[in-house]
Amino acid sequence: MKKSMLLVLLLSPILLFPHVFNHAESRSYVITFQYDINDNLIKELTSHFDGTKKIITYDYEYDSQNNWTNKKRFIDGILEDINVRIISYFQNKKRRFKKSKI
Predict the structure, then answer these.
(1) Which of 65, 83, 87, 102 is an S-S bond match for 71, by CB 3.0 to 4.6 Å?
(2) Contact, 45 vs 57, CB < 8 A?
(3) Distance between CA 69 and CA 88 in Å, rounded?
(4) What is the domain partition of the chain in residue ranges?
(5) Which of 19-23, 43-47, 49-53, 71-75 has the lowest mean pLDDT?
């Protein structure tokens, strides 16, 4: 009887080294996103199951065409980086050639 029990333990190492799941050490999290009226991300809230939170917010400056030209990213209230983009707009030119009717 002892031999069969020993065999089960050798074939089932989980029985030799039990692991208890501790949710406080888990890397699981939930991310919630919030957008402005221009569909740009303005807030990203990461909630970890150990109770810690990380808040990333974005501040935008827009041009006359409602495209952002300056984006600031804050992590937990501290400015992390600034993205600047330059957008060139072209006016529609009239066609030089007329469409042929076929």
Answers:
(1) 83
(2) no
(3) 11
(4) 20-84
(5) 19-23
> Percentages helix, strand, coil for the chain, rounded to the nearest 5?
15, 40, 45
Amino acid at 50: D
What does the alpha-carbon distance between residue 23 and residue 28 come to, in Å, rounded to a whole number?
A: 8
SS (H, E, C) 35-83: ECCCCCEEEEEEEECCCCEEEEEEEEEECCCCCEEEEEEEECCEEEEEE
Question: pLDDT band at 7, cuts 50/70/90?
Answer: very low
pTM of the shown model:
0.61
